[in-house]
Design goal:
Order of helices and strands: EEEEEEEEEEE
Shape: globular
Distance between the termini: 40 Å
Largest sheet: 7 strands, mixed
Number of helices: 0
Radius of gyration: 14 Å
Mean pLDDT: 92
Number of strands: 11
Low-confidence stretches: none
Strand content: over 45%
Length: 128
């Protein structure tokens, strides 16, 4: 019911920056779209990276705190992940995920089962 389009992945040296963007469009329904970023890291599986609630509260995986910043443009249903000081361990496929909530995005949910819609992923490669 939600189409997600991701962009911004690429290759960068350690210490560099990338900005990922995800735009969402509703195919059906009128609920709010709540979005988050996940990643699949080789050898570690999928993990939540960052999520944001309507009040601006955010949730990050510990390893990216202080380096990544997530923001959202609700009018355009766009989620941005600004990634600074990238490390080789950040290498992986990054996925935008979305869920629909009729009452709004009250919590910065960052667990996989909550999300029903997934983008195709964008590759991030960080070399040392």
């Amino acid at each position: 019911q939600v189409q997600l389009r991701e962009s911004g992945g690429g290759s960068v040296q350690a210490g560099g920056s990338l900005s990922l963007s995800c735009t969402a469009s509703k195919i059906g329904g009128s609920s709010n779209i709540c979005m988050a970023w996940f990643r699949h890291v080789p050898g570690k599986g999928r993990e939540g990276v960052a999520s944001i609630a309507v009040d601006g509260r955010t949730n990050y995986v510990e390893s990216v705190k202080g380096r990544f910043t997530v923001s959202q443009d609700t009018r355009q249903n766009t989620l941005v992940l600004q990634m600074n000081d990238l490390k080789p361990d950040d290498t992986g496929t990054y996925y935008c995920a979305a869920r629909q909530e009729s009452y709004g995005c009250l919590a910065a949910v960052l667990y996989e089962a909550a999300y029903k819609n997934w983008g195709q992923g964008t590759q991030v490669t960080v070399s040392s």
